[in-house]
Design goal:
The chain has helices spanning 2-19, 93-96, 121-125, 127-132; strands at 40-42, 49-51, 57-61, 64-69, 72-76, 84-86. It contains four helices and six strands.
Length: 146
């Protein structure tokens, strides 16, 4: 019986080593492409650009492109993807500080939220999420896009 456990354990270790590390990202097949060249404008006070003429909530940060759609974040190497999901706990904190005014297509439940303040992520992801992501809170930019 012990020998059986050793053999099974050995093959599990081999499978893990040969299989490589588990991927944290999942291809979600978000079908978002842009037929027109995007015009990028800075979000004042943050190292982020937003697609000023985009028909979606798309942002450029740190050499990558991020989309916020239907309550989820996606990241891609170009502004036409391919897109993979980013779990809420891994969204860069600076993106969470972008004021509502810079979301070209804000969700309907955001209407009435202060345009110069970041979205109320605790409403979207719950109070436990906010407790584990205190760094997302930062300076509030009170400037509206032109």
């Amino acid at each position: 019986m012990v020998r059986y456990g050793v053999v099974v354990g050995f093959w599990l270790v081999v499978a893990c080593v040969l299989g490589g590390p588990a991927e944290a990202r999942v291809d979600v097949g978000l079908n978002l492409t842009f037929s027109l060249p995007l015009q990028w404008a800075p979000v004042p006070g943050l190292p982020v650009y937003y697609g000023a003429n985009a028909p979606a909530n798309i942002f450029q940060y740190n050499g990558q492109y991020y989309v916020f759609d239907d309550g989820a974040w996606y990241v891609g190497p170009t502004y036409n993807g391919p897109w993979i999901v980013v779990e809420p706990q891994f969204v860069p904190a600076v993106l969470l500080r972008i004021p509502v005014a810079y979301y070209r297509v804000p969700p309907p439940h955001w209407h009435g939220w202060h345009a110069g303040a970041p979205p109320r992520w605790e409403v979207i992801y719950g109070p436990a999420w906010v407790h584990h992501r205190p760094a997302w809170r930062g300076p509030v930019v009170v400037v509206r896009p032109r």
